[in-house]
């Protein structure tokens, strides 16, 4: 498995502010993804973080709301912009390694927006 | 795109009994099917997976079966223990560099 460090682990934010979540992997990976998991729900893919180019967003998610960076093969950030209470959720970074195509998850960021 | 359905949404079993969770998928091009276990407040953990060239895979008390023709796969947990209590997610993917599609989850409770 991969060692995936995600921070912050949790945060409480005010409406209208932004939060940037960081994801650091212990070795180079081919694919990095960002998922959202709302309370009691399944995992919804927000976007694929592409190294050196713009992220690929899923339907219902846009770059202005969830800008993503991936400057190298081991690091990515997700920003949740102009937050509202509806953004309260767990955000998970995940990675796929070239060697075995398996998907592993970071520890998650629990976000609460007041 | 792919659609993964998972049943049941909740499952309660007595300790020592077996538990079975079923998933169906829609895209015949999907060829990799992992299962994740998520304990409360924790990240999803990969517990077992199967590829489309295999019909069954077993790892101690956990097994997964795949029926490509019917496009469904199942997780089997035998001799359940209280520590098996968690939410289980199935997923489907077309393989490397393709996204994973997750089922809606099954909350398993093992009653001591």
Could you walk me through the main structural features you see in this protein, from its secondary elements to its overall organization?
The complex is a heterodimer of chains A (114) and B (112). With 114 residues, chain A is an all-beta fold. Helix content of chain A is 0%, strand content 50%. Chain A contains no helices and eleven strands. In chain A, the strands form two sheets. In chain A, strands 2, 4, 5, 6, 9, 10 and 11 form a seven-stranded mixed sheet that branches. In chain A, strands 1-3-8-7 form a four-stranded antiparallel sheet, with no helix packed on it. In chain A, a hairpin with a 6-residue loop joins strand 9 and strand 10. The N and C termini of chain A lie far apart (36 Å). The mean pLDDT of chain A is 93. Chain B has 112 residues and is mainly beta. Chain B has no helices and eleven strands. In chain B, strands 2, 4, 5, 9, 10 and 11 form a six-stranded mixed sheet that branches. Chain B has a five-stranded antiparallel sheet with strand order 1-3-8-7-6, with no helix packed on it. In chain B, a hairpin with a 6-residue loop joins strand 9 and strand 10. Chain B starts with a strand and ends with a strand. Chains A and B meet through strand 10 of A and strand 4, strand 5 and strand 9 of B.
């Amino acid at each position: 498995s991969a060692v995936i460090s995600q921070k912050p682990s949790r945060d409480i934010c005010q409406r209208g502010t932004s939060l940037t979540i960081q994801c650091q992997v212990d070795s180079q990976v081919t694919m990095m993804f960002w998922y959202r998991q709302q309370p009691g729900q399944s995992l919804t893919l927000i976007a694929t973080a592409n190294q050196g180019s713009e992220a690929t967003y899923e339907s219902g998610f846009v770059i202005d709301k969830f800008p993503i960076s991936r400057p190298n093969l081991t690091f990515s950030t997700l920003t949740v912009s102009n937050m509202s209470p509806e953004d309260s959720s767990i955000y998970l970074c995940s990675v796929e390694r070239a060697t075995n195509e398996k998907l592993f998850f970071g520890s998650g960021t629990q976000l609460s927006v007041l | 795109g792919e659609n993964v359905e998972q049943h049941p949404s909740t499952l309660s079993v007595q300790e020592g009994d077996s538990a079975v969770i079923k998933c169906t998928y829609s895209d015949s091009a999907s060829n990799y099917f992992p299962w994740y276990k998520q304990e409360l407040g924790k990240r999803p953990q990969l517990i077992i997976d199967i590829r489309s060239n295999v019909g069954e895979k077993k790892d101690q008390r956990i097994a997964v079966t795949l029926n490509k023709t019917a496009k469904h796969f199942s997780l089997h947990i035998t001799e359940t223990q209280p520590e098996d209590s968690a939410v289980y997610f199935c997923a489907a993917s077309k393989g490397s560099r393709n996204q994973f599609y997750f089922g809606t989850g099954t909350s398993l409770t093992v009653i001591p």
